Amino acid sequence: MTLDATTSAALTRRLAVEQSTHRLPSVAAAVVRQGEIVWSDAAGNLDGRASGEPATPDTQYRIGSISKTFVAVEVMRLRDEGRLAIGDTIGTHLPEVPFGHVTIAQLLTHTSGLQAENDGDWWERSPGSSWADLLASGAALRATPGTGFHYSNLGYAVLGELVARLRDRPWQDAVRDGILTPLGMHRTTTRPEAPAAPGLAVHPLADLLHVEPEHDAVAMSPAGQLWSTAEDLSTWAAFLAGRTQGVLAESTLREMLRPVAVADVPGAAWVGAHGLGWQMWNVEGRRYAGHGGSMPGFLAGLRVDLESGDGVVLMTNATSGLGTVTPDLLEIVREREPVAPTPWHADPSQADDLDLVGPWYWGTYAFTLALGADGGLRLGEPGQGRGARFRRDGAGWTGLEGYYRGEPLTVERDADGRPERLVLASFVFTRTPYDPAVETPGGIDAAGWH
């Protein structure tokens, strides 16, 4: 699959403008559609000099906090294997931590209240230390767990140790064996492998460069150690769009992409949130997921449009200066070549449930029940009031969102097999308001409607 030549040219020009106007030594990017790279390019030279080696989509850059998404997926793989529950307290698995009552889910969503960074030297620019040394240096809660969003690099160091403990090998080996190798991401590593860009800082008031240090962060490495390429990271964008290739159950990926913690700033409308390891964005009602990354000398971004499945990855070797190019590249593709809608087709299997459709009443509230294209049910308008969608679950259905997410819906039929009651989270829906022929909790007034 390829993009139109004019679209590719627009993407290349936008990338070049970003490198030039924001004074980035080099930058590489790629766009993914339907699980494949449809455009990739790079601009600038690796050392920032006019005579330097040009960057390519196969140049390695440090991806910073995008590393956290790999740790999170490995945690969820352990969950799916029955090795842990995300509701477990971390002390269940790491009894030595002084915040043992914090849950794994809270660490994944940055709602643990754990401090943002480690105590001691600036870990991103200093040689790392062991897990034992990290704990000995002190680790404290800054807020009551579960009460709000507080980004914590230290929290992901804890999750990395959790993976290492349960896999009985370093977290990076577990991620390599369980995720990177099966996906074919052989250019994603914990230390740079040529060709790789050096980490650089650009002077804010002069056209001068400063080399940033590179090291192994050891215990803090799960928070931002990985290096990757635009081409390799595109596979991760395709994974996020649903092409999991058996590495993770699709239902688990959907679970990870539910917004849990709002990144709230008082006085400003919120547009960002965190799920189980992934960042989420809500831009004018359109949902995106991915993650950003920054380390001294590097910036990176990964973003996927959850409606279309289009994704973009971008990385640069600059400590600061990156503008809006990451979402801009995605917007160029969406505006110039929107994804075609899925064709409608009849579904004869829906005939089995046709007697359920139509009006239902919860007290005096009217709802219309319809059959969904995914084989489920739609009660009212999802997202409005208590409207929701339901997926088939055995003999009944389970709510997918909103007030009824996870709640069971069952159909009760009369002696002739006709549906007469819907029971949902203890609420009873009937074909007419307070139908006198059907049992309703609390009973029907003897006078009826009068």
UniProtKB/TrEMBL annotation:
InterPro entries: AmpC-like, Beta-lactam-related, Beta-lactam/transpept-like, DUF7586
Regions annotated as coiled coil: none
GO MF term list: hydrolase activity
Alphabetical list of Pfam families matching this protein: Beta-lactamase (PF00144), DUF7586 (PF24491)
Entry keywords, A to Z: Hydrolase
Keyword Mitochondrion among UniProt keywords: no
UniProt domain Beta-lactamase-related: residue ranges: 18-322
Domain of life: Bacteria
UniProt name for this protein: Serine hydrolase
Originating organism: Aeromicrobium chenweiae
Lineage: Bacteria, Bacillati, Actinomycetota, Actinomycetes, Propionibacteriales
